[in-house]
């Protein structure tokens, strides 16, 4: 509704045309405290005064778009330790980004060759030594991301 100042405001619902029941039920809809900690699929909401909520939830489940699948590059990025992800590397000073990218590529190569994406502390030490040797710059866990 116009507010007289060139803008608009939302008026409170007064009847079914304003969805008064739905607005009231949305405010009162909740999960009881005893449902906390359960997996989302097993949680059950409080079943009082929710006549319009259940069909609304069903509509959302069946009609809202599904979450898009990740591309191969996005899946690969998710497997990386947080400190080797591209977003983290871009936050490093430019002088350290090259070394971090090298560490990331070595980690990915190991991940592909061994079919596992875990990195052990001895491997991390060897990785740092290799990057230090290859770049000619002393690299330590203090100045390069470590998983």
Write up this protein:
This protein is mostly helical and 147 residues long. Helices cover 47% and strands 0% of the residues. Helix 5 (94-114) crosses helix 6. The longest helix is centred in the last third of the chain and has 21 residues, at 94-114. It is elongated. The termini are far apart.
Provide a brief overview of the structure.
By secondary structure, the chain is mainly α. It has helices spanning 20-28, 53-63, 72-79, 86-90, 94-114, 121-135.
Task: Give the topology.
Layout: H1 20-28, H2 53-63, H3 72-79, H4 86-90, H5 94-114, H6 121-135
Q: Determine the number of helices (DSSP H or I, runs of at least 4 residues).
A: 6
What is the percent of helical residues? 40-55%
SSE arrangement, N to C:
HHHHHH
Oligomeric assembly: single chain
Whole-number average pLDDT?
77
Q: Rg, please?
A: 27 Å
How many beta-strand runs? Answer: 0
The percentage of residues in β strands lies in under 5%
The shape is elongated
Terminal-residue CA separation? 54 Å
Give the tally of structural domains: 2
List keywords for this structure.
147 residues, mainly alpha, 47% helix, 0% strand, elongated, disordered C terminus
